[in-house]
Amino acid sequence: MRTIEQKGAYCYTFNRYTEPLARVKPGEEVQLLTEDAYCSLVKSENDDLEYMRKTRTGSNPQIGPIYVEGAEAGDTLAVHILDIQPTRDFAVSSIQNTIGGLTPNKHTPMMTEPLKERIWIYRFDKEGFLRHDDYLRFPWKPFLGTMATAPKLEALSALTPFENGGNMDAPDTKPGNIVYLPVSVDGAYFFTGDCHAAQGEGELCGTALEITAKVKLKFELVKGKTINWPRIESPDEYMTVGSSRPMEDAARIAYMELIALMTEFGWERMDAYQALTQAGKLYCANMVDTNYSMVAKVSKALAQRRKQ
Amino acid sequence: MRTIEQKGAYCYTFNRYTEPLARVKPGEEVQLLTEDAYCSLVKSENDDLEYMRKTRTGSNPQIGPIYVEGAEAGDTLAVHILDIQPTRDFAVSSIQNTIGGLTPNKHTPMMTEPLKERIWIYRFDKEGFLRHDDYLRFPWKPFLGTMATAPKLEALSALTPFENGGNMDAPDTKPGNIVYLPVSVDGAYFFTGDCHAAQGEGELCGTALEITAKVKLKFELVKGKTINWPRIESPDEYMTVGSSRPMEDAARIAYMELIALMTEFGWERMDAYQALTQAGKLYCANMVDTNYSMVAKVSKALAQRRKQ
Amino acid sequence: MRTIEQKGAYCYTFNRYTEPLARVKPGEEVQLLTEDAYCSLVKSENDDLEYMRKTRTGSNPQIGPIYVEGAEAGDTLAVHILDIQPTRDFAVSSIQNTIGGLTPNKHTPMMTEPLKERIWIYRFDKEGFLRHDDYLRFPWKPFLGTMATAPKLEALSALTPFENGGNMDAPDTKPGNIVYLPVSVDGAYFFTGDCHAAQGEGELCGTALEITAKVKLKFELVKGKTINWPRIESPDEYMTVGSSRPMEDAARIAYMELIALMTEFGWERMDAYQALTQAGKLYCANMVDTNYSMVAKVSKALAQRRKQ
Amino acid sequence: MRTIEQKGAYCYTFNRYTEPLARVKPGEEVQLLTEDAYCSLVKSENDDLEYMRKTRTGSNPQIGPIYVEGAEAGDTLAVHILDIQPTRDFAVSSIQNTIGGLTPNKHTPMMTEPLKERIWIYRFDKEGFLRHDDYLRFPWKPFLGTMATAPKLEALSALTPFENGGNMDAPDTKPGNIVYLPVSVDGAYFFTGDCHAAQGEGELCGTALEITAKVKLKFELVKGKTINWPRIESPDEYMTVGSSRPMEDAARIAYMELIALMTEFGWERMDAYQALTQAGKLYCANMVDTNYSMVAKVSKALAQRRKQ
Questions:
Q1: Cβ contacts (< 8 Å) between A113 and chain C: which residues?
Q2: Are residues D224 and D77 in contact, defined by beta-carbon separation less than 8 angstroms?
Q3: What is the pLDDT of residues D66-82, one digit of tens each?
Q4: What is the pTM of this model?
Q5: pLDDT at D307
Q6: Which chains sit next to D, with 3 or more Cβ pairs under 8 A?
Q7: Residues of C in contact with B17 (CB under 8 A)
Q8: Which among B110, B156, B273 has the least Cβ separation from residue C154?
Q9: Which CATH number fits domain C2-225: 2.40.30.10, 2.60.120.580, 3.20.20.10, 2.40.128.50?
């Protein structure tokens, strides 16, 4: 299996303008090495977060763009997440004054004094858990915080979740699942990064257990099929991801797209609207990024019932 | 076990002013008969929802108030949900133009034409599922849409979720769980109703599988313990419920209260903030009511770790 | 002119259940004595706001309810604000941790340390300005922060702006203007209070220049005319007030009602929608209360053009 | 005075990557020819808006980028709006299903049927008003919907208002006023366009009276002065513009920046917070774009009082 490493600088925006780092064929499996959200500039609890923020070129470095052969605007890119392995023995979390669901920030400023910033370093223990101390210890549940194809015209900050994916921070973009992304430009221009060793729903303080990782992915194309927002397929469920502000708009988008998905299986729109009222799931992936992300779910059994 | 039925009119507000319907002792188990959200005025798919809305006294009739002996302002009321049984053979859902996550409504009005209103009647089938047709068929997963104690001064619409509970529409207020509510007035003045045979997260179109029910509850008091917002305890998890608008404010409240809960187990605040970043859960209970409700969860194992 | 004073306790909710304080006839002019938002418990910059909050029965005391003879549910109450005079020589503002557009609060909690609370006492100077020092000095621009009729069923906190008016904190509810409120119960049950010597748009920190006052009002009825939300008429403009969260929902309501108002003058709905795009005004009355309030405006000249 | 015309394609993003169209010196006055938001593809009320949307390269074409000699990241660009003249005899407004404060759209989707799309063509009449018919007639009050400098890394859609300005749709970016924008990249990379013959606050239906125009601007630099968000200076007032979602976050940003501005004049932060509570203004510039924009204002007299 081919291993793709970033040459030169990582990408700090999702864009079609950067020269592709590599080209992959539909059906091909590759291995990518991802950088962590701090650009690997935080390694000790005594490091200075303000210095890190001023030193790095940008936030949330991404590997890419990966050019997918044969992908055309209007297609859908299916990314199978096969495996995630850590490439160092620690993960980093922190309280920063620039981000956080319960921290005043650029979008929701307050007159209060800033929080005292703080770093937590977690190391893998014998059971493979991430351990800071006897109390702060979490199982290894890795996923990719960021997966995106390039927008049609924009170059969007790698901190942004949007209609082509991006920084969704959805724990369901994990090994065993397939992530479907809209293709807006020929070649798709895929980016990924921001691997988390574990993360709760909402990514509450703004930084999960941030790691560098080796990620195995398989790319496939669904030719001629257009979707408007990302979808995730697990063995048992179909999911849609909506990213916007306020959070209810993200929820509206996610459920609207899930209704659209159900109509592809033969459901009438109002029946699907009512069915999801009784059996949909809806969790918050992130409440900290430039857009909030909500994930709506339906069981495959229910979605496919019309076609049985 | 004593059965409590509403005498005279059901209640359409959560309030301390209505004469208590019954008095219960801490530790006592009682059975309550709840009315459905339509005041049982919808029984056929040909009924007129506009007529129903104009005919009924109010929305979301509640049984109560139940006076809990010994409850004083500042205490916490613990309500054990022991059992829920249907008292009729059908459940009702509908699309109404007055409510819905994807329906323009009083709070989020739009210039578009109203939706065509529609009713779905579900009946229990042999396997005990709620069945409309071969496709619309859902398992029996009953819970109480509404559980509240009276506000200190206000009389709030039974459509409202708020700091003393109310119309949270959280699928976790179900048999086997304990719901903790702040007590704002002596006697607590407990109300419940709006039983759902099943509901997805968000209650998307605004009406779940609405039923009348017989509900077994046990009331207990936590004397001298004050909580600010509702909590739910399942065998494995602690939950907090925040209700506000926009949805991110409901999420903020839920997680802030979950941090407060963890500090009661010995957690330092910033550690709890960071721990929930890695391991909290956060789902949308309702995206349709006068406030949106978000439920934040932490495993008991994690919350209690500091005290082990 | 009759002077109405509160007998016994002021009201802390808008409700139909409290015994009317007085009865007025349509066309009648009366004088009301209003209490300030602090229940007159803050008189010095050394007072303790926490003590004040714990001591008072409720927030934002209201005089009322005033029963308007002949008012029936479905009518509109027109309240002419004739005059406002201060009844003491000072006004009070403060920074409190319980409220504020840039202060974490119950609805938008944050993990930061609370602000240091602070009181500012302003006194009338020779020019009739409210003066704290050489820099903090503002002209006398009084208005009524709160004007409401009772809800149909609820008893709502006097801190709440809602469809029958309430704590809108709109600087346009001032002498010379007419405020139109929906009548939901027979007799209307009018409440007012929370007089401000001056206030900017948004009431940013949560407390304006709070005063006690003598207010001259004239009540009139528009029989058989039903409005959904408050309206304000100045010599030159028609206004509508929407109160909700998030703020864009308040804005949607305000403009939706202004379109409705224009259709009463013969405008086609889509023409009115487009006309307000070119010539409507939209300011924020409050960004601090339990709902946010937005005021939309159209010139009378434009609104009435269809009827000329 | 030099006239700058777009050569080749207009810009559809605010970015630093496009080759500068022209270079200007601080103090220089230039004339720019701006395209309308429809790329001049709508000229008749019978045109097809869906065809227009599919045909054009992008939304909201911008002239630029203009390289400002001597501008360095961290400086502030001052743009004096000297004059705006129409370059054709008509303006266009429309109802589109892709945008609108009371129209379901990409961000706030609904299950309702789309609105019937519609175009209004306005022509200048003898008095210089924009006239559609006897009722739809508005005075000439031109301003630039869009003014921006390039972001540090991103290329943002010309539909987006953000911290460097952009599609703010603020009626105060008009002749006689000065607009201050943060400089994030050397040369500033200035863009403008989206001229409106008139617009109400909120740009309710999403398209104002759209025109092509000749715009006279003068560029100046404030070396070494860093601002975080746009400011506007009129003869009597200082303004700040916040753009975000939900709308209350835009309001928070605007007022936070206005407090920052006042501290530059010697105000203590909490005094400024309180002073704006009594005397600030806060209106909605747009409630339709990808971010909502709010404009906060303070009189120069008040802001400068500390320095007198």
A1: 112-113
A2: no
A3: 999 999 999 999 999 99
A4: 0.98
A5: 66
A6: A, B, C
A7: 17, 155
A8: B156
A9: 2.60.120.580
